[in-house]
Amino acid sequence: MQIEMRGIDKSFGGNAVLKSAGFLLDHGEIHALMGENGAGKSTLMKILTGVYTRDAGTVIVDGQEVCYRNPQEAEKAGIVFIHQELNVLFDLTVEENMFLGKEIRNRLGVCDKKAMRAEVRKVLERLGVKISPEQKMSELSVGQQQMIEIAKALMVDAQVLIMDEPTAALTQSETEVLFEVVKNLRKKGVSIVYISHRMEEIFELCDRITVLRDGTYIDTKKIADTDMNDVVKMMIGREIGERYPVRDCKIGKTVFEVKNLTCPGVFQNVSFEVHEGEVLGVAGLMGAGRTEIMQAIFGNMPHVTGTLILDGKEIRNKDPQQAMKNGIGFITEDRKVEGLMLEESIRKNISLANLGRISRKGVLQKKAERDLVQEGIEELHIKCFNQEHECNNLSGGNQQKVVFAKWIYTNPRVLILDEPTRGVDIGAKKEIYTIINELAAKGVAIIMVSSELPEVLGMSDRIMVVREGLVRGVLQKEEANQENIMILATGGSL
User: Fold this and answer.
1) What are the pLDDT digits (tens) for 68-78?
2) Is the distance from CB of 103 to CB of 110 less than 8 angstroms?
3) Which residues of the chain have pLDDT under 50?
4) Among 220, 188, 228, 174, which Cα is nearest to 204's?
5) Could you tell me which of 12, 211, 342, 389 has the fewest CB atoms within 10 Å of its CB?
6) At residue 54, what are phi and psi to the nearest 5 degrees?
7) Cα separation, 220 vs 302, whole angstroms
C-alpha cells in the first residue's frame, strides 16, 4: 500500500498545528516520522486514520483520494494506528481485549471461545510473547500491555501499521522481539510508519525518515544518506551540540542513605547512598523492582521495612505527604496519570504542590502564586499561551517541564526521577538534562531511574544496577558501560 498526504492543514481553537504538511509512504518500507513534541506527527497520522478531519489537503491511498470518517473505516482499508496511550480494559482478560467488538461466533451467534483462544495463542506465539490468553490485563506489566496492543493490530490483515512510540515501555528483549516482527512484516509487504524519539532505533530499523517542525514538512531522506546530527538540525532548526551537557559539579557529603529496604516478594535488603550534587543512576530490566524501590522510599508502598537516613537523621515516610515534608521529591514515570492533572492549568499544577510557599495563614496569596508560576514558565522555557494553558494541550516535553517546576519549587533535598525523559523529543531532553545538572549544582541529591542506557551513562556519576529486587552492583563512572550494566542486569558478575 502506498499513501501520500499533501498540503494538510489542521487547527485547534485558532492554533495551527499542521501547516501544509506532507508525507509519502511507500509499499513495504519502515518509514520514521520524527519531530519535536508538538511538531504534528501524531496529528498527521490521526488525520490519516479518521480520528481528526483535516481543514485542507489531500490524502491519496494507492492512487485514490480517500477521507476516512473514523478509525474503523481506516482499519477496514488496512491501516491500523497503535497509539502511544494504551487502549486496554484492565478488568478484562487478554483474550477479551484482543477480540473486543470482533468476536468469533458460531452458527448460533454464540462466541466461539475455543477459536478465539487459539487465534490469540497463535498471534502471541508469533510475537514471542509468553502470556496466557486467560490473564487479566491488570496483571500484566506496561511492557506486556504494549505487546498486546501490537498483537491486536496483527490480528487485522493490516497493510499499514502506524506505531507511536512503540518501545517506550518495553524491555530490551521485548524491543528486540518487536524489531524482528516489524522486519518480518516489511518482508511481507506491510508498510510501517514508526514514530519515535529514540534515534538509535530509527537508524537501526528504518529505511527512510520524514521530519516535521512546527507543523510543517521539512524533508524526507534515506537513512543511509543522513546522520543523527543532520536529523536533529532538521527537527529543531539548529545544531544541538553534545546530547548530554557537561556537568562539572562538586560532589559533597552523603545526603541520603537507604539501609536494608525490604518489601516481601518485591525487593529485599536494598542499601545505597547518594551524595550532595550527585546523580545516582538506577538501571535494570523492566520488572527488576526499580520503580517499586523508589515508590517505597516515597512512602507509597505497604509492608516496607528498612531504614532511611537524611542528613544523618533517621526519617520515616509513612506516606507521600510525609516524604515531601521530609524533603524528598518524586517525578513519577507516568506523568499523565500520576504527575499531572491534565485537565487543569499550568498554574494549578505548579501551585498545588507549593501551597505552603504561596499561602499566608492558610490563605492563598494570588500575586505570590502568579509570580511563582511565571518564574517556572520562564526558567524552564515552558512553551504555552499563558499560565491558564491546560496541561492536556501541551506537548510531552512541556508537560514534563511542568512536572519538574512543580517539584523544584518545593526545594527538595533528594529528588527521585523515574524515567524523566520518556516520550520527550531530543531538544526537550537536553533542556531537562540541563535542569537536572542545575539542581545537582545547587546540592540536590538526585536518584535517576532510566531504561535508556545511553541516558544513564551520559548523566550519572555512579550507576546502581537492580535485578529481581536485589542491588547487583554499583558502577563508578569510569567502569560504567552498556556491557557491564547488562551483565549485572541479567544475573552475571563482573
Assistant:
1) 999 999 999 99
2) no
3) none
4) 228
5) 12
6) -80, 150
7) 51
Strands, sheet with 254-263, edge to edge from the N-terminal-most edge strand: 267-275, 254-263, 305-310, 313-315
Closest CA to 474 of 285, 292, 309, 280: 280
CA–CA separation, 141 and 145 (whole Å): 6
Rounded to 5 degrees, φ, ψ at 15 are: -95, 115
Identity at 126, one-letter amino acid code? R
Burial pattern 445-462, b for ≥16 Cβ within 10 A else e, equals bbbbbbbbbebbbbbbbb
Task: Report the C-alpha gap between 21 and 25 in whole angstroms.
Answer: 14
C-beta separation of 273 from 299 below 8 A: no
> At residue 109, what is the residue type?
G
pLDDT tens digit sequence for 440-471: 999 999 999 998 888 999 999 999 999 999 99
Instruction: Please state, for a pLDDT cut of 70, what percent of the chain lies above it.
Output: 98
Within 109-191, residue ranges assigned H as helices are 113-127, 142-155, 172-187
Question: Number of H helices and number of E strands within the chain?
Answer: 17, 22
* Strands 30-34, 208-213: pairing kind: parallel
pLDDT value, residue 239: 62
Cα 349-42-340 angle, rounded to 5 deg: 15
Question: Pseudo-torsion of CA 445, 432, 294, 273, nearest 10°?
Answer: -20
Note the residue count of the chain. Answer: 494
* 80 touches 161 (CB < 8 A): yes
From the number of C-beta atoms within 10 Å of its C-beta (0-12, 13-18, 19+), residue 259 rates as middle
Which DSSP string corresponds to 354-423? THHHHEETTEE-HHHHHHHHHHHHHHTT---SSTT-BGGGS-HHHHHHHHHHHHHTT--SEEEEESTTTT
CA dist., res. 453 & res. 458, Å (int): 8
Give per-residue pLDDT as tens, 183-214.
988 998 999 999 988 888 999 999 999 999 98
Q: Which domains does the chain have, with CATH numbers?
A: 3-236 (3.40.50.300), 254-489 (3.40.50.300)
Between CA 492 and CA 494 the distance in angstroms is 7
Query: Which pLDDT belongs to residue 13?
Result: 78
For cell 532548526, the residue is: 237
Cell of 286: 523492566
**Contact residues for 376 (Cβ-Cβ < 8 A; gap 6+):** 346, 350, 382, 402, 405, 408, 409
